[in-house]
Amino acid sequence: GSPPLSPDWYLNKVKLKITDVNDNVPEWNMKPYPYLAVVSPEASAGTFVYQLQALDGDEGKSGEVEYFLSDGGDGCFAVDKQTGQVVTTGLVLQRDREYLLSVVALDGLGSRSPPAMLSVVAGARAPQFTNTSYAISIPENTPEGQPFLAVFAIYFQNQPISYSLLINPSSLFSIKQDTGEISLTRTLDYESDQRRYLLMVRSSEEPGSLSTATEVQVLITDENDCVPEFLQSIYSVDGVPETVTTATSLLQVLATDCDSGLNAELTYYTLSPDFSISPHGTVFPAGRLDYERPNHLYEFVVMATDGGEEPHSGTATVRVRMANINDETPEFSQPV
Q: 324: which of 72, 149, 197, 272 lies 20 to 30 Å off by Cα?
C-alpha cells in the first residue's frame, strides 16, 4: 500500500467553481422614507419627480435590477427601467391632487420586490413626519432639559421648518423649534406623577403656514431610587424559652419601599447563625437556643433587599431575650 497523499496534493488537483444562486430578493433602499414627492402642476414632460433605488445582494445577472410602474399615476408618470427615476410624461396634472404610484423591482431572474407606494402631490405639500406616530419610554430620573426624542419631518417647499407642541400636558415638555428635540421642563417622580403622557407635535413651513401634526406617547418608567426602610429600627421579643423549636415563629419584621414593581419587592436576610428569617420577614430559631449567655440576650441584624437590577438594602436590629427553664440538674462541688 502506498502512503496516504498529503492534503496539499488534493488542493493542487481539485478545483471548485462556486456559482451564485439567486437567493436574494431586491430590497428597497429609498431616501427619504416614506415615499413622498411634489411636482409642479405645470411640469413639462421628463421633469424629475423622485429617485427610487433597490439593492439586490446577488451578483451578475441575478443582481441586475429593473424598475416597473405596476399601477397608478393615470399615465402622468413614468419610471426609468434602468435608473429607477420617476419622471412626468407631459400629461396635464390636476393641481393639488395626490397621485399614488406602485413601483416594483425585478432582478435578472425574475424575483420581484414588494411594491413601493410613491405619493406625488401636484402643487404645495405640507411637511410630513417620518413616523405616523411616536412612542417612547423614559426613566423617571431623566434630567430636565436633556433631549430624549427627536421627531423629524420632511419638507417640500425648501422653506425653514419649525416644530411646536400643540398638546403639552401640564407644560411638562419642551421642543426645540429647529431640531424637533423633545425634553422635560422638570424632573419626574414615578410614584407621584402621571405615568403616561400624550403629546401632539406640529411641524410647519414658512411662508404659507403649511403644517402637519403627529402624536408622541411618553411612558414614564420606575427607577430603583428608594431604599427599603423597616417600620422599626429595633425589634424585640422577651421570654423566649430555651425549649423553643425551629418551627416556632418568634416575631415578624416588616420593611417598605416607595418604588414600584420589582423595585419594591423585598426579600429578607440575616447572617446570624442562631436564627433564620423567611423571605417575608418571619424570624425562627435556627437551632437550640441557650439561656446561659451574656445578659440572656441574642442580638443580630436583619436586612431587606429589593428586587431591582441594582438592589438597595435596609437593615434593622432584632433582640431576643431568653426565659430561664429549669434544665440543669444539681451537682455537688465535691464527690460524696
A: 272
- For 116, the grid coordinates are 413601493
Q: How far apart are CA 102 and CA 37, in angstroms?
A: 14
pLDDT tens-digit map of 135-160: 999 999 999 999 999 999 988 888 88
Q: Round to whole Å and give the CA distance between 147 and 211.
A: 23
* 9, containing H or E segment: helix 7-13
Burial of 284 (0-12, 13-18, 19+ CB in 10 A): middle
In 107-233 the beta strands, taken as DSSP E runs, fall at: 116-122, 128-129, 133-139, 149-150, 153-154, 161-167, 173-175, 181-184, 196-205, 210-221, 229-230
Residue 30's pLDDT band (boundaries 50, 70, 90)? very low
* Residue 213 backbone dihedrals phi, psi, to 5 degrees: -135, 155
State the cell numbers at 127: 411637511
Query: 8-29 burial by CB neighbour count: b if 16+ within 10 A, else e?
Result: eeeeeeeeeeeeeebebebebe
Confidence tier at 181 by pLDDT (50, 70, 90): very high
Q: Which three cell numbers stand for residue 47?
A: 421633469
Inter-residue contact 175 to 181 (CB < 8 Å): yes
Question: 331 pairs with which residues across the strands?
Answer: none
Bridge partner list, 100: 119
At 201, give phi and psi (nearest 5°).
Answer: -110, 135
pLDDT-based confidence at residue 3 (cuts at 50, 70, 90): very low
d(CA 66, CA 284): 78
Cα–Cα–Cα angle for 35, 37, 42, nearest 5°?
A: 155
Q: What is the mean pLDDT of the chain?
A: 86
Q: What digits encode the pLDDT tens for the residues 100-126?
A: 999 998 887 777 888 889 999 999 899
What is the pLDDT at residue 133?
94
